[in-house]
Structure formats: structure tokens, C-alpha cells
Amino acid sequence: MKIEKIVQALGLEVRCGKNYLDKDVTGGYTGDLLSDVMGNSREGYIWITRQVHQNIVAVASLKEHVGIILINSCQPTADTLEKAEAEKIPIMVSDLPAFEISGKIYNLLTAKS
Prior knowledge:
The protein is of the alpha/beta class. Helix content is 42%, strand content 18%.
């Protein structure tokens, strides 16, 4: 499923990387501890977090995530947006908590066509 479809289905606010929403999402990972995300997430995943600093972009780039969703209306810092745009990693914002947005994305990814 393309990121763009998730954005539309869940009404996410795209903060940067609007030109990169055509990437395929193969799964997702929810977590705020960077070492946990580095150790357990996979390439092609969309990452759900409340962290807003630029280190999330470094982790997403390292793990080849297709995008980052910030929860609870958390807003990324300016340097995070700048780094994400340079790395071609979309950052989106949801007003939902992690549990709800994770469930909704899971349901979208596992729905029968």
C-alpha cells in the first residue's frame, strides 16, 4: 500500500516529503526508544513515534523506513523537517495516540482487496 493511501484514509497532515508519498508501506513499527526501533523495525516500514527531534530521521534513513508518523499532534522541529526533506523521508502528523493510529494502519495493511 502506498503512503498516499494511508494519508488519505487517516487524514494525516503531511509536514514534509509530499513528493515521496508513492513509496510502498510493507509494515509498521511503533516506538519511541531509538535503539529499540533500530533493533526491531525493518526496511519498508512506516514508523509511528512521538519523538520530534532530527535523530528520528537518522534512524529512519538507517533502517530505510518509508515514512514517519508523529502522534498526538506532535510537531517536528524545523531541523527535523529540513533533514527529512534532504533524506526524502515523509513526515506526517496525526492527532491520534499511538495505539489508535497503529491499529488503523494495521487494518489498512491487512484488509483484503
